[in-house]
């Protein structure tokens, strides 16, 4: 662990003393240079857990700073980032570049996951520093400290905002609203199975790799507001999973991976009941491949227009949608994303 002292997170107030070098370390303990003597809120720890070998990359020297997403993003949609600069002079801050993850997304720590209340008070130095710099109001800090999110959570607040997903594991996304959060746990790249009288088939991923995805707002099956998932690009893969066993009667052609720019489509395989004595105990497979991943938002009391009755674009002709385990999660997530949309959208 490396120790560092800074006096501000405001890019306009940076000095040479705020320049720190965290290359090759697992964690940096940041303390406030201007903290009052005896103040228990002495430091904050920022780790490199997302990087290979959990180490910050070489030549990671620069400034920690606070970035606020522009409106209509909610007030709590801010984050700590690290700006790499060529030297210790803060004049070079605008010409620097943000520290990025192997996926190409910026390394950051969301405001709502920085510090939490313990024994009735917020313990740490980042919130007091942000308030002292005038970057975040006391009301926003009080709200952020009460939202239940960890420091390494994936937090988004708008359609089209990219995030990273592994193809062979589930992903929990935190949707940030103006005064609350919703959590979605997704596994759209994993083979989904349903019980049809016999034991369910495996639930594993046909492919390995990592993708950058985003949610988008579409119209599907007559529902005006639908949350779909689109692949922007692949960071790794997709490569065939050697542990994946093809269900009986299928080939790899039945499980094509989503291409960059396409909607994510679910892979589903059903186990059916035997239809005759001749079949006996043999498993009869039924396939319903290539359903798009989507969640609908119900507008109660509103009638559908003619255009809304039709499926549009890539979702046309789909028979069965994908649902989260708890349907209220999808409704709440969509509601928060829609609240953060520009008024004219």
Note down, in words, how this protein is organized.
By secondary structure, the chain is mainly beta. The protein has helices at residues 126-133, 138-146, 306-309, 327-339, and strands at residues 2-6, 20-21, 27-32, 43-47, 61-68, 78-84, 97-98, 108-110, 117-118, 121-122, 154-156, 163-166, 171-176, 181-186, 192-194, 207-220, 223-240, 265-266, 268-272, 284-287, 291-292, 294-297.
How would you concisely characterize the structure shown here?
This protein is mainly beta.
State mean pLDDT (0 to 100 scale): 77
How many distinct helices?
A: 4
State the share of residues found in helices, binned by percent. Answer: under 10%
Low-confidence stretches: 117-122, 195-201, 270-290, 296-327
Q: How far apart are the first and last residues' alpha carbons, in Å? A: 46 Å
Radius of gyration: 24 Å
Q: What's the helix-strand series?
A: EEEEEEEEEEHHEEEEEEEEEEEEHH
The oligomerization state is single chain
Q: Shape, please?
A: globular
Query: How would you classify the helix and strand content by structural class?
Result: mainly beta
Please report which band the strand proportion falls in: under 5%, 5-15%, 15-25%, 25-35%, 35-45% or over 45%: 25-35%
> How many strands appear in the DSSP assignment?
22
The description of the largest β-sheet is: 5 strands, antiparallel
């Amino acid at each position: 662990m490396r120790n560092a002292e800074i006096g501000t997170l405001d890019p306009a107030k940076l000095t040479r003393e705020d320049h720190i070098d965290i290359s090759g370390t697992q964690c940096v303990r940041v303390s406030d240079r201007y903290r009052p003597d005896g103040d228990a809120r002495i430091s904050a720890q920022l780790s490199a857990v997302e990087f290979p070998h959990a180490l910050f990359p070489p030549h990671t020297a620069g400034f920690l700073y606070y970035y606020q997403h522009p409106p209509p993003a909610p007030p709590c949609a801010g984050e700590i980032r690290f700006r790499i600069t060529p030297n210790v002079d803060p004049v070079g801050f605008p010409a620097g570049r943000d520290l990025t993850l192997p996926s190409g997304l910026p390394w950051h720590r969301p405001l709502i996951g920085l510090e939490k209340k313990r024994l009735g008070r917020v313990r740490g130095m980042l919130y007091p520093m942000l308030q002292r710099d005038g970057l975040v109001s006391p009301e926003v800090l009080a709200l952020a400290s009460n939202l239940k999110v960890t420091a390494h959570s994936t937090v988004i607040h708008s359609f089209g905002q990219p995030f990273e997903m592994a193809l062979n594991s589930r992903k929990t996304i935190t949707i940030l609203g103006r005064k609350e959060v919703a959590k979605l746990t997704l596994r759209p790249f994993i083979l989904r199975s349903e019980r049809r009288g016999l034991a369910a088939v495996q639930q594993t991923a046909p492919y390995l790799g990592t993708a950058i995805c985003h949610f988008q707002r579409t119209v599907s099956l007559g529902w005006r507001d639908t949350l779909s998932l689109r692949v922007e690009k692949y960071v790794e893969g997709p490569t065939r999973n050697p542990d994946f066993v093809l269900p009986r009667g299928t080939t790899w052609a039945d499980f094509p991976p989503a291409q960059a720019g396409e909607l994510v489509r679910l892979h589903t395989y059903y186990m059916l009941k035997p239809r005759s004595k001749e079949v006996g105990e043999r498993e009869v497979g039924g396939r319903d491949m290539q359903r798009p991943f989507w969640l609908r938002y119900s507008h109660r009391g509103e009638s559908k227009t003619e255009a809304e009755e039709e499926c549009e674009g890539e979702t046309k002709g789909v028979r069965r949608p994908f649902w989260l385990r708890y349907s209220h999660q999808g409704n709440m997530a969509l509601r928060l994303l829609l609240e953060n949309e520009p008024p004219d959208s």
